[in-house]
Amino acid sequence: MISLNHTGISHTVFQFLGIPGLEDQHVWISIPFFISYVISLLGNSLLICIILTKRSLHEPMYLFLCMLAGADVVLSTCTVPQALAIFWFRAGEISLGRCITQFFIIHCTFVSESGILLVMAFDRYIAICYPLRYTTILTRALIGKIGVTIFLRSFCMIFPIIFLLKRLTFCQNKIIPHTYCEHIGLAKHACNDIRVNIWYGLFVIMSTVVLDVLLIFVSYVLILHAVFHMPSRDARHKALNTCGSHVCIIVLFYGPAIFTTLTQRFGRHIPPHIHILLANVCILVPPMMNPIIYGIKTKQIREQVAHIFIPKQK
Q1: Which of 21, 26, 103, 114 could bridge 181 with an S-S bond, Cβ 3.0-4.6 Å?
Q2: pTM
Q3: Where does the sequence pass through the membrane (predicted)?
């Protein structure tokens, strides 16, 4: 058994590089970051306000959408302002405590969003396969319990990682080539054996995100089976149309995440700045596009937005 000879020095402050190799382009890179954040913040906040204030939208599908919009606001606000501070002011210094807190919020929110997308698939399954029992199955009490369960699952899965990180001695390079903190990226700066961190991180991904993807896939297989057994072509078209927005959001959420994971795992010859840019796409694109997709494809939300910005003349 080899014993590591630690210096006894453990860094408590780290320095973000932003996008490594593209430091001279940070001002230009900040423009799409800023625009996407503004769109995300305004779009999701507007969506939340419309759903909460309009009683006609107090239906399960819109309440789940409200949860998703809230998670998007948290995810964007936890990451993008810090990235902008790095790009504009080179303010990349962060304490270990703040770094672990940021990682915890990001990972919790990401797992929560995955859970919300799963229950939205369940919502569409009930709406299409059991339309007459839709309101009796998805009651407000059940929706509340589902929301609490999603949060508790995320919290319980991510919370142990705090202790896995706290046990490490960060005596290596304190420069983080990224715009935000994430689990393995921070653990790699430790002198200790981080195999436990790697295996637990893999367990979390498999038991949450991967499991959610599989269950969403099963839900849509059942939905498609029900849709193509409908006698009317118009009924089939209407049923598929109600799933359109959700499918787009699923692709936007899981697509970049899967692609980023694959490039990190197998794309060893891909430049580091590509990895970091792809990781930021996972944070930037879904929160920005979700309110736009639902605003365009959902008639009730589109009407409410039009009523706010173009009020009818008396």
Answers
A1: 103
A2: 0.92
A3: 27-50, 62-88, 100-122, 142-165, 198-227, 239-262, 274-294
